[in-house]
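Suppose a classmate hands you a notebook page containing two proteins, each written out with its sequence and a corresponding row of structure tokens. How would you begin to make sense of it? This section walks through that situation. The first entry is reproduced here exactly as it would appear on such a page.
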Amino acid sequence: MKILPERRPADVLHVGIRIDLVSRADDAAVVAARLASALDGVASVDVVSARRHLRAVPDPVLRIETGSRRAILLGRPLELTRLEFDLLHYLRAHPDRVFTRGALKSALWPRQDGNDRTVDVHVRKLRAKLEPHLDPITTVRGVGYRFESSAPVTLD
């Protein structure tokens, strides 16, 4: 048995209850119907549509700041050499494109002496600094390297 306070017509009580639903709009109608049933006619229930839900976008694992020439990995500055930064920036600026070792060397290295394996050494050192958190650079066997566009890396 429910005991409700005696109500006089002059007594009006306005109560607002906010329920945030992270689901379909149909679910709001179901919740409103159940709430109205639970209130057993003591109060009315109105459903007010709010703005569309915002999708949470996770912070990138790696942020490359071009102007300041910094790379931030998980909120901490990443110590990179000039060539490592240039290599990372160049590959990220051209995602999903395969570059030969020779093309990377001619685009990024100031001096063209040495062989194409110089690129391999720099990629290996760069990967060592990014792992285990991130591995955005893929080796395309017999060709060169590609930066995966799906990697959580932003270029500012």
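The notebook's second entry, a different protein, reads as follows.
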Amino acid sequence: METYELPELFQLAASYDRSFEGFAYPKTEQQQGKADLTAESWAAALGDVPADFAKSVVVEHYRRNSVSISTSVIHREWVEYRNQQIQKAESAEIKSKPRPSAAESLRGWERATAALLEAKGQDPDEAIQDIKARRQVLQVKCPVCRASPGKGCVSSTGNKVQPLSNNRSHPSRFEEAGVEMPAPSAVGEEQEPEEAAPERG
């Protein structure tokens, strides 16, 4: 607020609080000097608080309180209001941004994966293609262990059923999905042998 805006604020406060009458309606030179000094100090304390906002805080304050209002009360309300407006603007901006498509999300995943693999000294293109192939394979049911789409293949030993090591899939599942199975040497693993489907009790 500017110094010249304070007398009107003091007049508003004086309509609720008689302690502001000397600042709002100074009758002597001494009261005028004190009112001017108070206006300058309040203007410095309130800084960028708009005059209309300060007036609304004064009205709301005296609706709920009988103690005199102070610059700290007005400034605190302004900071809270401003923070709320910033949060609303940020929230609206986030909501207005279009969500990335599945293709865009995949490209983002590829870039992150490539950077990680390159840092480890691996060939990112080969590894990404391998991961894509395995994801495509998981979209079909395994004809060997009968794993449902989206579920990993399992192996059975007697009554014990457990996932295949390293999240691998049976070769027949690759065939079912029409995907060429990566060579074991390319991914550093042995090919998973075919086996009978586990018995369903």
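A careful reader of the second entry would note: The radius of gyration is 36 Å.
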